[in-house]
Specification:
This is Assimilatory nitrite reductase small subunit. The protein is mainly beta and 104 residues long. It has no helices and ten strands. The protein starts with a strand and ends with a strand. The mean pLDDT is 93.
Length: 104
């Protein structure tokens, strides 16, 4: 069963940016993304296209564009945006009283 762990303050993630976390429970680094309206999403930090670090990409609306080839991924679902295909694992994340909690 997964449990939530406090990771950082919301303000530690730049708006329309990302922060990478490594947990002992995950082999893959996880990127926490913060949108312009302060929603937070968590995805594995790799693009399904060429494996680029999504945390280095541009966050726009509810998506992130991989810095390598502009491959776009929906932050809420981890699905590639059409016409691309692919999937990035998503992780449950919550913001509680200005703190970001991640399910691991």
């Amino acid at each position: 069963m997964k449990s939530f762990h406090k990771i950082c303050a919301l303000q530690d993630i730049p708006q329309q940016g990302a922060r990478v976390v490594n947990t002992s429970a995950q082999a893959q680094a996880i990127a926490l993304f913060r949108t312009a309206d302060d929603q937070v999403f968590a995805l594995d930090d790799h693009c399904p296209h060429k494996g680029g670090a999504l945390s280095h990409g541009l966050v726009f609306g509810g998506a992130v564009a991989c810095p390598l080839h502009n491959f776009k991924v929906d932050l809420a679902t981890g699905s590639a945006l059409a016409p691309e295909q692919g999937q990035v694992p998503c992780h449950a994340v919550e913001v509680r009283d200005g703190e970001v909690w991640l399910a691991v």
